[in-house]
Amino acid sequence: MLPLRTFLSHPSIASFLSMVTAERGVVIEDELAYGPLPRHRADIYTSAATPDDGPILLFIYGGGWDSGERSYYGFVGSAFAAKGITTVIPDYRLFPEVKYPVFMHDVAQAYAWVHRKFCAPGKPPRPIFICGHSAGAHAAGLLCYDESFLTGIDPELPRPAGFVGLSGPYAYDPTTHVRSRHIFETAQSVDQVRPIAHVSLGAPPSLLMHGAKDQIVQFKNAKVLSAALRDLGIRAEAIEFANMAHTDMVIAIARPFRWRAPVFSNAVRFIEECAKSRSSTV
């Protein structure tokens, strides 16, 4: 399969994917500012037929921390919105414009904006989930497990209600890897930038999905992270799909490719179950 940035940025392929994945009744609000900078923009996908009190999903795309555009991922927003899950897809600053932890501050700022927009005082509480693919799963994982990014914005910000990780590098060392060492050379330590190093009581339930043919990130990242969460009594699933490579995991969300693996249905099931569990305990 073509590299993800090529697959989704090629005009004819992107147009085809948008056409065949269009969902009826999905409303899109685009170019919404969650911060003051040009990359601080987000698109929101909602269902016109579903009450606006259901779960919310913040999707963080991948691209090696140095590429990606939210416009590539309309198929993700449309898919989840059609299931009644309001979906927000933000851009964030990338290398070489910024290094760690600046892009993490952008992701945290986007999360805080979503919380303010949808969970303001007086409104019914709505659980916010976070999903990420590849480098986006790494960033989403850090946001879930390292509380400092959210408390640095607002000590009262709640952690995400759950995490869906696709092909994420949760346990590897990005400070020495040739692909990422310059991006993370500002880190104070290796563990500072490893999501698994921040797992603690209070971490959200997590669904970690991976392709067995992934040649970029190894499945063991998901296995060791899920084991660490389960050791603390936190719900965690690590699922490996045969015949699926690195980029296949996010493309399988698109309706024409869902036959390859139940990535999308598993994510929807997980979000709905966690949302129901939270509502029953409120």
Descriptive overview:
By secondary structure, this protein is of the alpha/beta class. It has a single domain (4-281), classed as Alpha/Beta hydrolase fold, catalytic domain (Rossmann fold), CATH 3.40.50.1820. It has helices at 4-9, 11-20, 74-82, 102-118, 135-145, 148-151, 220-231, 248-251, 263-281, and strands at 26-33, 41-47, 56-60, 86-90, 128-133, 162-166, 206-211, 236-241. An 8-stranded mixed beta sheet has the order 1-2-4-3-5-6-7-8, with helices on both faces. A hairpin with a 7-residue loop joins strand 1 and strand 2. Helix 4 (102-118) crosses helix 5. The longest helix has 19 residues, at 263-281. The radius of gyration is 17 Å and the shape is globular. Residues 1-5 have low confidence and may be disordered.
Quick structural gist:
By secondary structure, the protein is of the alpha/beta class.
Q: Tell how many strands the DSSP assignment holds.
A: 8
Just name the CATH architecture.
Answer: 3-Layer(aba) Sandwich
State the domain count: 1
CATH topology: Rossmann fold
Quaternary structure state of the chains depicted? single chain
Shape type: globular
Q: Between the first and last Cα atoms, what is the distance in angstroms?
A: 45 Å
- pLDDT < 50 runs, ≥5 residues: 1-5
Class derived from helix and strand content: alpha/beta
Estimated radius of gyration: 17 Å
Q: Summarize model confidence as the mean pLDDT.
A: 92
* CATH secondary-structure class: Alpha Beta
Beta-strand level of the residues, as a percent range? 15-25%
Strand order of the largest sheet: 1-2-4-3-5-6-7-8
Instruction: Report the major sheet.
Output: 8 strands, mixed
CATH level-4 homologous superfamily: Alpha/Beta hydrolase fold, catalytic domain
Q: Level of helix content?
A: 25-40%
